[in-house]
Amino acid sequence: MVLYRKFRPQKLSDLTGQEIIAKTLLSQLENGNVGHGYLFYGPKGTGKTSTARILAKAVNCTANRLTTNAKRKKEGSVRRSTLNVRHFSEPCNKCLSCLSIMDGSNLDLIEIDAASNRNIDDIRDLREKIKLSPVLGRFKIYIIDEVHMLTKEASNALLKTLEEPPAHAIFILCTTEVSKIPATIISRVQKFNFKRATISDLTKVIEKIAKVESIKIESGLARLIAEASDGSYRDAISLFDQLSSNKKEVEEADVKSIVKSGGWEELARFVENLAQKKLKDIILQIEEVASLGADVSFFAKQLVIFLEKILFIKIGIKDELFSDYASEQIEKLVFLSKQFDLDKLQSLIRLILVAEGEIKLYPLPQIPLVLAVCKYCGEPQDNSRQAKVTDPSIKSDNHQVLSEQIDIAIENKVSGFGSNIGKTKSSNGQKVIEIKSLSDIEKHWTEFLARVKNVNAHVVALLRSTRPTHFDGDNLTLEVFYRFHKDKLAEPRIIKMLDATFSEIVGSQVKLKFVLAQKGTKPTQSVRASDVIEINDEDIEKIAMEVFSK
């Protein structure tokens, strides 16, 4: 038998790290206040299913019930009928009921995997069978694991049974994602939150098992295994079982060959390189983790937790959340905290979090982490606007940024126009075109579009759906065939740019005016293939946002 099953808790007092839950359930058992529905939720491997089985044993324990009744008889109960009131305690683990639950043969304990029995038909079948009386014990206990996997219809079918179950039925729902469970179900059960195991608790469990199994483990290695277990008792014991499967001794080389990443010293070295922005050393360390076959996603999670501790120190939290750390580790964290600015530390944590979420999308899992640290180490040291635009960790309004970039281009164009009035050539050396009538404008319309394209390429596509209809020397009226195009071209920033461009052509100030074409008027000819503007893929999003921004 594997170690995590062999050393599975068999009594509430055996639960490690969940003392409050154990005390509450034991109090309910002793007072006879056992509920009809429970919800055990929390991270994987924290004892939810084990606690459910202990509770099932306690309420059906034969020796427990007989002992309690005999004791109450001796003390002189008020009347004989009170002997049937539910009063329990810890299971004896020796009676037929307890032993059958432990070996999985008890007919009154029904365990349902909601991941594979999630449909409404499965719940309907449960509702029909729940009416049958228990076979051996006083209660039928239904343990529904990963209950959040039930479909919406199945959850609704379960509601009525949860609210008013038969007197002989107890429901224990277990899940790792309580947020996905409907509030209507949560309101019908007692809720118990199973917390992630601390490093010290996991270390004690490993050392205890090592002592019982006569397995020699070097000092500090139990803690290293605990750190790599992500707060899961099951993962910690399974990892220890793997390390000790071939021999009765666990050495440092064995642990490093399995754990491969996530060690405290390795994380400290990585973060110190980040603080000093030693990009080469950081990349080599990431590649080393990946080449060893380690879980890069787990390494990123451990890195976020490590950086979080540094963040806590930066904001003045030390004693409350560092009970698991040795004094030299706390000193190292304090040292590292002094090498980060608070804003940059928050930015780094965001980048690593984003990278961790993208790891599963890449064929090489280390790539998102490499890109994240390159982004952090390569960011400018000043607070220029370019840094604010390119840093994804800084929340910015893309519409506003693009508008600012357009305004800068317009200002440059206007300033160029101011120096060209009355001259025969523009600032870029192009000759000023003499425009006297509407026919002159039509002759040089292509030239006007070319100059607009130099300032704002996408506006050219809108102008191709217009037609000059009137020019009096100071004002140019353009007929637009689509209201949407008219509204976009009439925006103040677009008008300002077009006025400046056209005025540069004629050598004097000219105002453009857009009017909507009358119904029945034919629109301009279709856009030719030669008119299509070549746009790179990376520019499509920016141009679209610029067109549709208000």
From TrEMBL:
<dbReference type="InterPro" id="IPR045085">
    <property type="entry name" value="HLD_clamp_pol_III_gamma_tau"/>
</dbReference>
<dbReference type="GO" id="GO:0006261">
    <property type="term" value="P:DNA-templated DNA replication"/>
</dbReference>
<dbReference type="GO" id="GO:0046872">
    <property type="term" value="F:metal ion binding"/>
</dbReference>
<dbReference type="InterPro" id="IPR050238">
    <property type="entry name" value="DNA_Rep/Repair_Clamp_Loader"/>
</dbReference>
<dbReference type="InterPro" id="IPR038454">
    <property type="entry name" value="DnaA_N_sf"/>
</dbReference>
<dbReference type="InterPro" id="IPR003593">
    <property type="entry name" value="AAA+_ATPase"/>
</dbReference>
<keyword id="KW-0547">Nucleotide-binding</keyword>
<dbReference type="InterPro" id="IPR008921">
    <property type="entry name" value="DNA_pol3_clamp-load_cplx_C"/>
</dbReference>
<keyword id="KW-0239">DNA-directed DNA polymerase</keyword>
<dbReference type="InterPro" id="IPR027417">
    <property type="entry name" value="P-loop_NTPase"/>
</dbReference>
<comment type="subunit">
    <text>DNA polymerase III contains a core (composed of alpha, epsilon and theta chains) that associates with a tau subunit. This core dimerizes to form the POLIII' complex. PolIII' associates with the gamma complex (composed of gamma, delta, delta', psi and chi chains) and with the beta chain to form the complete DNA polymerase III complex.</text>
</comment>
<comment type="similarity">
    <text>Belongs to the DnaX/STICHEL family.</text>
</comment>
<dbReference type="GO" id="GO:0009360">
    <property type="term" value="C:DNA polymerase III complex"/>
</dbReference>
<keyword id="KW-0808">Transferase</keyword>
<keyword id="KW-0548">Nucleotidyltransferase</keyword>
<dbReference type="GO" id="GO:0003677">
    <property type="term" value="F:DNA binding"/>
</dbReference>
<keyword id="KW-0067">ATP-binding</keyword>
<protein>
    <recommendedName>
        <fullName>DNA polymerase III subunit gamma/tau</fullName>
        <ecNumber>2.7.7.7</ecNumber>
    </recommendedName>
</protein>
<dbReference type="Pfam" id="PF22608">
    <property type="entry name" value="DNAX_ATPase_lid"/>
</dbReference>
<dbReference type="GO" id="GO:0003887">
    <property type="term" value="F:DNA-directed DNA polymerase activity"/>
</dbReference>
<comment type="function">
    <text>DNA polymerase III is a complex, multichain enzyme responsible for most of the replicative synthesis in bacteria. This DNA polymerase also exhibits 3' to 5' exonuclease activity.</text>
</comment>
<dbReference type="InterPro" id="IPR048448">
    <property type="entry name" value="DnaX-like_C"/>
</dbReference>
<dbReference type="Pfam" id="PF20964">
    <property type="entry name" value="DnaX_C"/>
</dbReference>
<keyword id="KW-0235">DNA replication</keyword>
<feature type="domain" description="AAA+ ATPase">
    <location>
        <begin position="34"/>
        <end position="196"/>
    </location>
</feature>
<dbReference type="Pfam" id="PF13177">
    <property type="entry name" value="DNA_pol3_delta2"/>
</dbReference>
<keyword id="KW-0862">Zinc</keyword>
<keyword id="KW-0479">Metal-binding</keyword>
<dbReference type="InterPro" id="IPR012763">
    <property type="entry name" value="DNA_pol_III_sug/sutau_N"/>
</dbReference>
<dbReference type="GO" id="GO:0005524">
    <property type="term" value="F:ATP binding"/>
</dbReference>
